[in-house]
Specification:
- InterPro entries: FAD_synthase (IPR015864), Riboflavin_kinase (IPR023468), Riboflavin_kinase_bac (IPR002606), Riboflavin_kinase_bac/euk (IPR015865), Riboflavin_kinase_dom_sf (IPR023465), Rossmann-like_a/b/a_fold (IPR014729).
- GO terms for molecular function: FMN adenylyltransferase activity; riboflavin kinase activity.
- It is an enzyme of class 2 (transferase).
- This is Riboflavin biosynthesis protein.
- The protein is of the alpha/beta class.
- It folds into two domains: 159 residues, HUPs (Rossmann fold); 126 residues, Elongation Factor Tu (Ef-tu), domain 3 (Beta Barrel).
- 32% of the residues lie in helices and 27% in strands.
- The protein has ten helices and 14 strands.
- The strands form three sheets. Strands 1-4-3-2-5-6 form a six-stranded parallel sheet. It has a six-stranded antiparallel beta barrel with strand order 9-10-13-12-11-14. Strands 7-8 form a two-stranded antiparallel sheet.
- Helix 7 packs antiparallel against helix 8.
- The protein starts with a strand and ends with a helix.
Length: 312
């Protein structure tokens, strides 16, 4: 899978491509089904399969004060897409006000026809585009340069698979429902950064993982499994604003790994969220906080042990 930031250069798609368009935030089951259908259509037409996606998320541009929580970073999204083995190209276009001001007709002519040489287009059944979202399936279908087809909604356990629904499940602490929609446990990744180093003084050293987006889709205390240079280890994680020891409004992801004493600063870790234990809370003093962390760690270890027995 080759990634272009902007239109392709050279002779990447001289004879056209089979294309789909979308944010693909989280790359859930609905996205995966769309990619599979796109891949089939591309092979039947002897075309490369391609995705046009955007950075930042368009809603982050239009709702600067209160954007939706991002499910995945661009880095993780590209990794998820590559893991599907269904795309030849991904075109990441910068989404900004000038780009958003393109009329639907200009988007078709400039982007789809002239830059991406689209020959086949697969879109979601609710896809809208262009300035004031005036473009729709009927306008695309009227374009003689490519064939346009619509993908119906994908249902998982009777509900529509969508990034919005995944966000709702995560915000409500229903990690099992989110996992069903995603096809995997929800995960976040980032580099370990220096923090206050309070954890090591109270017997629970933590890896402070950088969050590239200000607003994560879930918060609380969780049972986790973490991938890193040590392989995979279980642990307990706090994702929130840590009200007992800080007054900041910034979110922090702090992970205490079981049976790990390695120096992790600068390492990239991937945190898989398995079960929510509780909401974040403020404690009157560190003694009370430590007692709660001990209970959380014990609960997490019990859960991980039961999970190992189920998978044995």
């Amino acid at each position: 899978m080759q990634v272009f930031f902007g239109p392709p250069h050279g002779d990447a798609v001289p004879h056209g491509c089979a294309l789909t368009i979308g944010n693909f935030d989280g790359v859930h089951h609905g996205h995966q089904k769309m990619l599979a259908r796109l891949s089939d259509a591309a092979r039947a037409r002897h075309l490369p399969a391609a995705l046009l996606t955007f950075e930042p998320h368009p809603r982050e541009v239009f709702a600067r004060g209160n954007p939706p929580a991002r499910l995945s970073t661009l880095r993780d999204k590209l990794a998820f897409l590559e893991a599907q083995h269904l795309l030849d190209y991904v075109f990441v276009f910068r989404f900004n006000r000038p780009f958003a001001s393109l009329t639907a007709e200009a988007f078709i002519r400039q982007v789809l026809v002239e830059e991406l040489h689209t020959r086949y287009l697969l879109i979601g059944d609710d896809f809208q585009f262009g300035a004031k979202r005036q473009g729709n399936f009927e306008l695309l279908a009227s374009c003689p340069d490519f064939v346009t087809e619509a993908m119906p909604s994908v249902l998982v356990a009777g509900e529509r698979a969508s990034s919005t629904r995944v966000r709702e499940c995560l915000a409500g602490g229903d990690l099992a429902a989110a996992e069903r929609l995603l096809g995997r446990p929800y995960q976040l990744s980032g580099r370990v950064m220096h923090g206050q180093k309070l954890g090591r003084t109270i017997g629970f050293p933590t890896a402070n993982i950088h969050l590239p987006h200000r607003k994560p889709p879930l918060h609380g205390v969780f049972v986790v499994e973490v991938d890193g240079p040590f392989g995979r280890k279980g642990g307990v994680a706090s994702l929130g604003q840590n009200p007992t020891v800080t007054d900041t409004l910034n979110f922090k992801l702090e992970v205490h790994l079981f049976d790990c004493s390695a120096d992790l600063y600068g390492q990239r870790l991937t945190v898989h969220f398995l079960k929510k234990l509780r909401d974040e809370a403020r404690y009157d003093d560190l003694t009370e906080l430590v007692a709660q962390i001990e209970r959380d760690a014990a609960s997490a270890q019990t859960y991980l042990t039961s999970l190992q027995r189920e998978n044995a």
